[in-house]
Design a protein that fits this description.
The complex is a heterodimer. Chain A is α/β, with parallel strands linked by helices. Chain A is built from ten helices and 15 strands. In chain A, helix 2 links the parallel strand 3 (47-53) and strand 4. In chain A, helix 2 packs parallel to helix 4. The model of chain A is unreliable at 207-217 and 335-342 (pLDDT under 50). Chain B has an eight-stranded mixed sheet with strand order 1-2-4-3-5-6-7-10, sandwiched between helices. The chains are: A alpha/beta, B alpha/beta.
Chain lengths: 342, 216
């Protein structure tokens, strides 16, 4: 997945784009940039726009020479036009008609509210034939909930561009990670194969952004103190204890927050149910256990809302409350299985 | 001066499709019998371009000691133009004690563009609304409903319209309803739909001039 914005995104290669983002996230700006670029590059006989502007504020000044129809502002009329365009996409694809390029833009979900099945069918048909018919379709909405935008219709889009979303539910529905990552004019761009497995099932993300911790980057920062302690422990210079630790006593070393896949979450929960969840390697500092070795496991502990986590406490600890220590032991180097070359 | 944040959330359902809705509010409380509500145009934010709604709210509260409520106006669908405003009006009624420390109050409302259009349509349903300031009202939004709504409204209506606004002609055509003048029209010279450039100051002062000033 990439991050893009109106300055960089060209929409030249793909044929269909679903844009989601809260009001003010920059959807309209992105679309206007795309349309202006196309208009600058192509003559009216080379491209025609079909603009569904139910908000009635976006495209009043569009050059009529570029329009296949007048800007559509009525949802009922819009559905009729969409059906026509679906038929046209089939005709153009079957007859190899490439010119002019037809660029369709749909703003918001009004037509879905009138007749969702009819709307979905038309969109899916257009998206299916768009490449061979030299048509492009952009559908933009601030409300990409499962009730408004079906999985089938989402699945028909080559690209999803997700700006700032209202909720984790919206992000999961779009098969993009939920984040509150700042720049309001930036969008996560996800191709179809980044959203769906080869068998068509969605790739889901378990999101931890609602834990109110900021992103720290793509990789967690290195905890040199932990590295040094582990070195000493493997050399038997210091000992370790297993411990059952109140989750509130554990403090992440940084604000790094990983993107957790559904597969990892499932695996964690299975191990947890079998009483063998991953252990967190921690050390004591200022009355807290500092965790930096496994952010995935730590956030899954938080996600499943348990009160304690299984830890390996490296070295001495002054903490005695809300923790249950096991006996001291020497930490062994991890065993690596080397495949037999024979 | 500080304001209190509040988010309203609700759902609209149409033909089996449920749309999640929300709008932000900022409340500038004051002990007063008057509440000023500021309604932006479609997709307008709670603070407004250049924080204009903050500026208006703070200056009016300071000068007249009235409570002010600001709202965002995100587009839902073209079937739900009035939904945001209705929910905000219900919220004000339910929270009047917290907002203006009074059981009875009068509302004065400034609306811009589509926000003004919706106000014109539904204000007559709310006797608590006494004065309307409709700035560059978007006449293409259900014009018959706008005229009918203003015709039924018992309070005072002022329409402030820029001479370069696309709706200026239609506004003059609807000044009368059943041979009765239903609004006072003020034309802002050299002013577009957004009160760009030098006209921005005029927008900032409009509530003072037309909803609170001596000549209102």
């Amino acid at each position: 997945m990439n991050i893009t914005n109106a300055d960089y995104f060209t929409f030249n290669v793909d044929s269909s784009l679903f844009i989601a983002g809260q009001t003010g996230s920059g959807k309209s700006y992105l679309v206007h940039s795309i349309i202006n670029r196309k208009q600058s590059a192509l003559r009216p006989d080379e491209i025609k726009f079909v603009l569904f502007d139910l908000k009635q504020v976006e495209f009043g000044d569009t050059n009529p020479e570029y329009l296949l129809y007048d800007v559509v502002i009525d949802p009922d009329e819009g559905l009729n036009k969409l059906d026509e365009l679906a038929d046209l996409s089939i005709e153009r694809a079957n007859n190899h008609i490439k010119k002019p390029m037809i660029f369709i833009y749909i703003e918001e979900c009004d037509m879905a509210c009138v007749d969702q099945k009819r709307f979905d069918k038309a969109i899916i048909t257009i998206n299916k034939h768009a490449f061979r018919a030299n048509m492009k379709l952009v559908y933009s909405t601030s409300r990409p909930t499962p009730d408004v935008v079906s999985t089938d219709i989402l699945n028909s889009f080559d690209l999803v561009a997700a700006g700032k979303l209202a909720s984790v539910i919206d992000a999961n529905h779009l098969c993009v990670p939920f984040s509150d990552w700042g720049d309001k004019y930036s969008f996560i761009l996800a191709q179809k194969d980044e959203r769906y497995k080869p068998d068509g099932t969605p790739i889901e993300f378990v999101n931890v952004s609602d834990l109110n911790i900021q992103f720290g980057g793509d990789y967690p920062p290195q905890d040199k103190h932990l590295t040094a302690l582990l070195g000493k422990a493997y050399n038997n210079e210091i000992k370790c204890r297993k411990a059952i630790v109140n989750i509130d006593l554990i403090k992440p070393f940084s604000n790094y927050k990983p993107k957790i896949t559904k597969d990892y979450a499932t695996q964690f929960i299975e191990r947890y149910q079998q009483n063998s969840p991953p252990e967190l390697y921690v050390y004591e500092k200022d009355g807290k256990f500092i965790m930096s070795d496994d952010y995935f496991a730590y956030y899954m502990y938080k996600e499943v809302e348990v009160t304690v986590a299984i830890c390996v406490v490296i070295g001495a600890s002054k903490i005695t409350e809300d923790v249950e220590y096991g006996p001291w032991f020497n930490l062994s180097l991890p065993n690596l299985e080397v495949p037999d070359k024979k | 001066m500080s304001s209190k944040e509040h988010n309203l959330r609700w759902k609209e359902t149409m033909n089996g499709v449920t749309v999640d809705c929300d709008t932000e509010l900022r409340i500038h409380p004051a002990k007063s019998k008057i509440i000023l509500l500021l309604v932006p145009g479609v997709d307008g934010t709670v603070d407004g371009y250049g924080n204009k709604y903050i500026t208006i709210a703070e200056s009016i509260r300071k000068k007249y000691g009235v409570a002010v409520v600001r709202m965002a106006n995100p587009f839902i669908t073209s079937f739900h133009w009035d939904s945001n405003l209705r929910h905000v009006l219900e919220f004000i009624e339910a929270n009047k004690q917290d907002i203006c420390d009074n059981d009875s109050y009068e509302l004065r409302i400034q609306g811009h563009s589509a926000g003004a259009s919706v106000l014109a349509m539904i204000a007559h349903e709310f006797p608590v609304i006494h004065r309307l300031l409709l700035i560059n009202i978007a006449m293409q939004l259900q014009p018959e409903d706008i005229v009918e709504g203003l015709g039924k409204f018992k309070g005072k209506t002022t329409v402030l319209i820029g001479d370069s606004d696309p709706s200026i002609e239609e506004v003059h055509n609807i000044q009368f309803f059943n041979d009765r003048v239903i609004m006072n029209i003020e034309v802002a010279r050299n002013t577009d739909h957004y009160f760009s450039g030098d006209s921005f100051k005029l927008f900032l002062e409009a509530a003072d001039t037309y909803l609170f000033g001596e000549n209102t």
